[in-house]
Amino acid sequence: MDTISYKTLSSNKENAEKKWLIIDAKDQVLGRLSANVAYLLRGKHKVNFTPHADCGDYVVVLNADKVKLTGNKLTDKRYLSHTTYPGGQRETNPLRILESKNPEKLVEKSIKGMLPKNRLGRAIYSNVYVYASDVHPHQAQNPQKIELKDIKS
Length: 153
Description:
Number of helices: 5
Helix content: 25-40%
Shape: globular
CATH architecture of the domain at 20-70 and 115-150: Alpha-Beta Complex
Strand content: 15-25%
Distance between the termini: 40 Å
Number of strands: 6
Mean pLDDT: 91
């Protein structure tokens, strides 16, 4: 009698086959874009996904300043921060962030919120590069452009 043995290969940082991907954020909804980028960063689209390892791809997000928000979120959504001093609570909204010097911070904050809140999440977050325009310095890595509709999340 033939016995068939199956062995699941666990991926780790050394044997993960990481690719460079480009996503154009122009006219994309912020939450859907961020969820799909987080999906790619975690590596959940790969056959050998391992939850405790950084096996995802490098993702370059372009045109972050042209991202869309649905409904009234552009003006009504609030981002709170605190300076650790009494009365040091600061409040801003997505419109102010997009009009600031760093409009890519909006997309970065959204992606970071969809990653795990631990050491692995911080390591995975270092694999995303967000740019406000369509110019980026990662041409040497030969990144491959993908569409959000091609991602099966």
